[in-house]
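pasting for ref
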Amino acid sequence: MPKLSDGEIFWKITKGIPGIMPSREKLTEEERWHLVNFVRSLAKEKPKA
């Protein structure tokens, strides 16, 4: 994943990206920030051998 700021990830979740619908109408602002934190946590995990 390219190095994106939390705000950029939030914006992509909110507005959508090509081929993926925006989530602003289905998720609250708080839920979208939780998703940002979840995405960050995935990036920190090390692959299992």
